[in-house]
Design a protein that fits this description.
With 102 residues, the protein is mainly alpha-helical. It has one domain (6-82). Helix content is 34%, strand content 8%. The protein contains two helices and two strands, in the order H-E-E-H. It is flat. The chain starts with 5 loop residues before the first helix and ends in a 20-residue tail after the last helix.
Length: 102
């Protein structure tokens, strides 16, 4: 098994961004009108996806419409959210499986 150098990894990831953005767009469209915060609970492969670099169809980055927050699990996220005061409008929690490698 050979490993990629950091430069090779970054180059491949940069080249994959348009495809990754396209795969996640169905999720973005559902959330655009309902949430200002996108909570990301990535599993193994998704930890390496640079969600802030993904784009909408018009080329604008998702961070132009959502604040991103990462959590290791839904239980951890719910616990943290229960410790803070309620904010205006609760964000939507969404789970979606995307075939990144397919």
């Amino acid at each position: 098994m050979s490993f990629l150098s950091p430069d090779e990894w970054n180059a491949r990831l940069f080249d994959a961004l348009p495809t990754l953005s396209e795969k996640f767009r169905s999720v973005w469209h559902v959330l655009t009108d309902h949430s200002r915060v996108l909570y990301i609970l990535p599993d193994a492969e998704l930890y390496s996806v640079p969600f802030a670099a993904l784009t909408f169809e018009d080329g604008s980055p998702i961070v132009s419409r959502f604040a991103l927050a990462y959590a290791p699990s839904i239980a951890w996220l719910n616990r943290c959210r229960s410790l803070r005061p309620a904010s205006q409008g609760e964000p939507i929690q969404a789970a979606h499986s995307v075939g990144v490698g397919t």
